[in-house]
Amino acid sequence: MAENLRIAVIGTGRMGSDHIKRLTHTIAGADVTGVVDIDAGRATAAAALAGDHAKVWNDPHAALASGEYDAFVLTTPGMLHYDVLMDALDKRVPIFCEKPLTADAATAREIVDAEAALGQRLIQVGFMRRFDAGYQRLRGWFEDGSLGAALMLHCRHRNPTSPPNFTDALMIYDSVVHEIDGVRYFTGEEITEITVRRGRASRGAGGQLSDPQQILMRTESDVLVDVEIFVNAAFGYQVHTEAVFEQGVVDIGGDEGAYVRTAGRWGGAVTPGFEQRFAAAFDTEFQGWVNTLRAGRAPDGPSAWDGYAAAACCEAGVAAQDSGETVAVTLGDKPALYR
Amino acid sequence: MAENLRIAVIGTGRMGSDHIKRLTHTIAGADVTGVVDIDAGRATAAAALAGDHAKVWNDPHAALASGEYDAFVLTTPGMLHYDVLMDALDKRVPIFCEKPLTADAATAREIVDAEAALGQRLIQVGFMRRFDAGYQRLRGWFEDGSLGAALMLHCRHRNPTSPPNFTDALMIYDSVVHEIDGVRYFTGEEITEITVRRGRASRGAGGQLSDPQQILMRTESDVLVDVEIFVNAAFGYQVHTEAVFEQGVVDIGGDEGAYVRTAGRWGGAVTPGFEQRFAAAFDTEFQGWVNTLRAGRAPDGPSAWDGYAAAACCEAGVAAQDSGETVAVTLGDKPALYR
Amino acid sequence: MAENLRIAVIGTGRMGSDHIKRLTHTIAGADVTGVVDIDAGRATAAAALAGDHAKVWNDPHAALASGEYDAFVLTTPGMLHYDVLMDALDKRVPIFCEKPLTADAATAREIVDAEAALGQRLIQVGFMRRFDAGYQRLRGWFEDGSLGAALMLHCRHRNPTSPPNFTDALMIYDSVVHEIDGVRYFTGEEITEITVRRGRASRGAGGQLSDPQQILMRTESDVLVDVEIFVNAAFGYQVHTEAVFEQGVVDIGGDEGAYVRTAGRWGGAVTPGFEQRFAAAFDTEFQGWVNTLRAGRAPDGPSAWDGYAAAACCEAGVAAQDSGETVAVTLGDKPALYR
Amino acid sequence: MAENLRIAVIGTGRMGSDHIKRLTHTIAGADVTGVVDIDAGRATAAAALAGDHAKVWNDPHAALASGEYDAFVLTTPGMLHYDVLMDALDKRVPIFCEKPLTADAATAREIVDAEAALGQRLIQVGFMRRFDAGYQRLRGWFEDGSLGAALMLHCRHRNPTSPPNFTDALMIYDSVVHEIDGVRYFTGEEITEITVRRGRASRGAGGQLSDPQQILMRTESDVLVDVEIFVNAAFGYQVHTEAVFEQGVVDIGGDEGAYVRTAGRWGGAVTPGFEQRFAAAFDTEFQGWVNTLRAGRAPDGPSAWDGYAAAACCEAGVAAQDSGETVAVTLGDKPALYR
């Protein structure tokens, strides 16, 4: 067996800290031996989460250049991704990049083109739902064709509350982006157009958001998609997907867990948040990535192309929000590396 | 089509009044044209429920002798059933008898023998669960053999609270009697032995009852049956039956109805009582009985034999409660009329 | 109690025959004493379903003029409704009219205006889903406000197969019309606009239909509605409605019935068709109508206005199918009689 | 962070090999650096599963004496456990012992007494269900008392088929043992008596077994337990537990996963076996054990006492099978170490 993978985590906010703990206590074959943050205090605190192994850096480019790491995990805000990713490609080191790939579709396309020019996959994007057992099972029905062709996808994405200063655009970039990737993952097709419908807003959204909204999409083979995005759904967290095929209908994301009858009611507890709902998916995602790298193979999870396509769809979605019209999504040629 | 059936209802307590309303407002082809109760005020009030048609009697034997009725419904307490049933057999008029058939197995056997001597079925016993769609569907699996032979039956009978002055014996006579009939209905077999286990009692039972209890039975072909009887289950009403076959398992009585997600929970409302759970079964039972009689046929619902067999099992069940031992059930020969 | 209601059924096709059987064998307080059909042989056969009571007519206007009936049930094709309804209003007799009210929105509006001019409700329209226990329970959440305001409605209407010669327009007039009425019933609001999206068609639709389709609607208070209409869904019949409120989400129409585990699968049987799914609703609808008339009251079920509003929405829906655009629905003033 | 734990796995059959893969590829902080099997070929093959790290031994006592390992995992057949466990206690090394603890209750008690005499917990027993999320959630209701006191436990343990040469006694030792430990885990009480009921046997059991059977137990506070053990249930694997409390009822182990409607059915796939059902539990169990040892703490999972109590219950269960009588379970004093 190869030695443990030496990993540096860039960005030590909530997501970065979670990943440090995950890599240290849950994932076999990896050690967090570096921690990068511009805030030295936060970096030191994060290093403690990894035990004694982790060296503290405040410049990601220095860490990238050091030669001390087998791979990197990037969790800083999206607008800081571009430079780090370009440097990682330049140094030819594998990097796991939390979504979004970059701040916009144009720069995301540049990353795609740069990686394609290298002819080597180094970047994996953190669309963790692809590692959820339910997502994988649903994809199985798309792939095996046993229920005939897919015709429609009904998606529900409900959060208990939205963070302060959340905006309509963030509803697309932060939340719907997962459904966008899900549609691409299930169907294996690109999304060709997006429309957004706004209706009555929940008073729970505090006057700030038009919440919920309905996002309508279409794929290359004319699968119709509707997404309910509701980020102040109050009752808890829920991601539900219903796929309509010619011969049947498949649902994933139904309520599970202990079933209780008391006080005149039957039922159970709703999952409080994505951390609980997708805990196993996060673990599976990282374990798979670590195993792939330790085996000397290129990453085979969501690619830079997937990150770019999602960014392009999000931009079209925000344009559709603004205009009230249907907006086409155009991606340009897909480099051979991603086919 | 024949004229409407003229029915007299004997006994106008809660069950009698419910049946008057049912026959008047829900059942096609029947009129309640007589009402019998020893309490004249109660009888008059009950007659009003039937509109202007109903004549008031205070002696059931006078009503039986009057020749004014096509059929009778008997809902007085069980200890008053024997004389009325014997008189109805003597007059050869159809009579629908709410359970129990009579006060004990010995007198029930006398009714069976009297009806068998007549060679004509006149009595139908009110085991209404046989008319529940779920019960009928489960019986289908026993009959068609598509899942192989039946091996075990797990039964749950839960009431929210027990009435005042309820006793351990009434748990058998009033509640378990429905499970006893259900086992006989599903399997088409007689019950051969009964054991009762008492464990920790719920404080909700008020110190008065050993509640819940577990009733263990065995049928002629050695199907093992266990019944949880819990008459202070607090959360609501539930009748659940799980049948284990060689090739599969079938459940009926699961929770149904609108599905709600709110306040951190998913689920729905529990049925509050048997009236709601078995409302359709009561209607189906009476409509079938009325249709049969209007068509000039003998009743084909639960027979006097079914009432007798249930009574014999209940007596064995109470003996098993008292002794802590397994008690055999012996029924004697089954008259040809009931085969 | 009043005498049984004397009813004549106009039209004796499948739906008419079903209603004759229902009124004869299931509904208390009604006799089918007249049967009307232009085809004498079919009328005679239908009369036999009602026993000896029913007189045969071949002209509905003669039956309406005879004075022999307390009420009528109209089940002929929709294009024949207008004349009969106008005559019934003229004669001031109650008439139960299966959907659609008339052949188009303009003539439906004339019926509304004529009834409003009379100042008396005589017409009830056969939107039977309003009598389904699940529909009524879901409406309860809209009315009591315990989950806050309604925001979205997701509707699924799936049939196993479509009849021969079915068309895209009939998908609206025959199937979506029930969802249109459902939205109006749940929200208590009118529908203000309709859009139709077509995507990939199922090969099960035989090249004839664009099936499934997605119908998007909006109500007066901006509740967003999406309907999946899929009339060749292959697996069986399903009507599912999910209502999104500010504080929670409610589903009705989930799968029910016996729960089986066998051959590596858990689950149960899908309802085969609307007759099974809404059997109890048909009975409740007619029993309520009969009870109302016997009590000397005007019908309080779905009104001519409800029939007209549905017709107007269907016309807008077909226009939306044809144009690919969002089409506004305008109803004009609502007469005081229907408020 | 401490160095990785060096572990030797004793016994390299199916369970041993699974654990080697698990410790190598799934568990953080552990390396399998030794493999012990009397069969040299099998040992070498198993060592390959662990990569290059693992040294091969054929005598467990030599490995225990070598000082090269921080901890051991014991997966040989139960009759070989006693000597290895005694040696491990003698050497004071932590050892994870797959069930059963030893071949019988008497020798299990000797292990308990030896460990108690040391005054130090070194042994953890592989009752992996305690690490299942559902089991832990159900235990929560026993601990927090929010539903009142526990009254009854209904347990179902169904396997698709039994291995060749399976016996009635093995149904207890191999399968019911998990339910025995579950009852002790949920209630925190010892089991005081056991009865076994045999009924009609499934033909799927091949004439060899009386399958299914019903195992009845009672705990110290008189909680009544019934277990259906059915090892040829044909349809798949299922472990279902229903706990009846004073104020409500809780179920765990219901069917989960993608929900499909096709070919007239709704439902999903049954779990095929315990490996799928308890995959996460096995991982959680080992990760917890490794984390505890790396932190320098004594193991806090199922103890030698738990292994001994289960063995005593199994012996009583087999005696109850043989006699048809209720058999008391007596454990003797519980050493302070385990309280």
UniProtKB/TrEMBL annotation, chains A, B, C, D:
Keyword Oxidoreductase: yes
GO biological process, one term: inositol catabolic process
GO molecular function: inositol 2-dehydrogenase (NAD+) activity; nucleotide binding
Domain GFO/IDH/MocA-like oxidoreductase as annotated: residue spans: 135-249
Keyword list, A-Z: NAD, Oxidoreductase
Subunit structure and binding partners: Homotetramer.
Protein name from the UniProt record: Inositol 2-dehydrogenase
Species of the source: Salinisphaera japonica YTM-1
The organism's taxonomic lineage, starting at the top: Bacteria, Pseudomonadati, Pseudomonadota, Gammaproteobacteria, Salinisphaerales
